């Protein structure tokens, strides 16, 4: 096993013990003197010198980049003497290890082959994981486009609302970064969020809905609750697990508020309008409705389109829809 710890490198362990060599760490490599290499492989100075010479004369390695002089201090009798000593980096050590004909050299090669095999297998697993992640993200984007097509085919949208749909797709695509740096930009719910300054309650929400009905002169069944599911929606955004908020950021709470109110159909009439209104009202009360430049974090046309997408979405797409909402309104 090879690891750096307190300026030491542990090359491998044998049945009889372990070899431990003091080394210099620098430039993302390690540096050993010739004496340390001799000790490491339990070989002779002449043998190691011959191997190093052949490594450079054959062109396998370039001595300009693999050899350095470092000043070392060692005790000679009662004095501490400082001298410049030639050091060889890890590339040279490995090359010598594959040449030296000693028991320690054999053990080193066995260890190195094992590490190489593990690296290749682990590298395959990592690449396979990245491929699965890319496939998942592509499927999410395809699902959003599918919902867009469904909304367009089943609803009479005006030009402004259609533009809102296009804006959502464009922003979602940029978040996935499919066209630029797919591996480094993955659509996830941001860990950082805004500090919550207002907690929505049923009484406050009910007052806001009633005021909306009066101002817009909605009549009949608008805002009339069919059951207790609206209260449940409000309670759900403040769920906790192990004493911690299940949705820790204000943006996550806002996203779930919009999603729950739309999908639960708690009102006899006006579910989508009430959901969109409460979403904006909640963002405003928590002082995150507007950007620093004074624009809304989500334009009205995009909000209309987003509410329709949620309404048409399958329950299995909930996580995807929450990611879309949070990434649209997040400042982080």
Automatic annotation (TrEMBL):
Coiled coil: none annotated. Gene3D superfamilies: Fic/DOC protein, Fido domain. InterPro entries: Fido, Fido-like_dom_sf, Type_II_TA_Toxin, Virulence_RhuM-like. Residues 189-331 form the Fido domain. It holds the Pfam family Virulence_RhuM. PANTHER family: CYTOPLASMIC PROTEIN, CYTOPLASMIC PROTEIN-RELATED. This is Cytochrome C biogenesis protein CycH. It comes from Salegentibacter salinarum.
């Amino acid at each position: 096993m090879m690891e750096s710890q307190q300026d030491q490198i542990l090359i491998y362990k044998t049945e009889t013990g372990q070899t431990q060599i003091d080394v210099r760490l620098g430039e993302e490599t390690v540096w050993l003197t010739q004496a340390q290499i001799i000790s490491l492989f339990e070989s002779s100075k002449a043998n190691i010198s011959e191997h190093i010479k052949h490594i450079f004369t054959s062109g396998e390695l370039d001595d300009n980049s693999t050899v350095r002089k470092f000043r070392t201090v060692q005790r000679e009798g009662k004095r501490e003497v400082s001298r410049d000593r030639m050091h060889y980096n890890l590339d040279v050590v490995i090359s010598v290890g594959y040449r030296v004909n000693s028991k320690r050299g054999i053990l080193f090669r066995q260890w190195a082959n094992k590490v190489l095999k593990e690296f290749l297998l682990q590298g395959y697993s990592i690449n396979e994981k990245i491929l699965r992640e890319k496939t998942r993200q592509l499927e999410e984007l395809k699902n959003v486009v599918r919902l867009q097509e469904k909304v367009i085919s089943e609803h009479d949208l005006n030009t402004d609302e259609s533009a809102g749909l296009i804006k959502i797709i464009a922003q979602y695509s940029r978040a996935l970064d499919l066209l630029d740096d797919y591996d480094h930009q993955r659509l996830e719910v941001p860990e950082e969020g805004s500090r919550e300054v207002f907690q929505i309650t049923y009484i406050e929400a009910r007052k806001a809905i009633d005021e909306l009905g009066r101002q817009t002169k909605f009549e009949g069944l608008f805002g009339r609750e069919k059951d207790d599911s609206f209260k449940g929606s409000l309670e759900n955004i403040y769920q906790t697990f192990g004493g911690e908020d299940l949705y820790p950021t204000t943006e996550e709470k806002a996203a779930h508020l919009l999603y729950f109110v739309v999908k639960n159909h708690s009102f006899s009439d006006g579910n989508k309008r009430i959901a969109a209104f409460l979403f904006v009202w909640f963002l405003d009360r928590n002082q995150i409705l507007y950007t620093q430049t004074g624009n809304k974090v989500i334009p009205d046309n995009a909000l209309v389109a987003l509410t329709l997408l949620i309404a048409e979405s399958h329950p299995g797409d909930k996580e995807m829809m929450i990611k879309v909402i949070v990434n649209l309104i997040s400042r982080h």
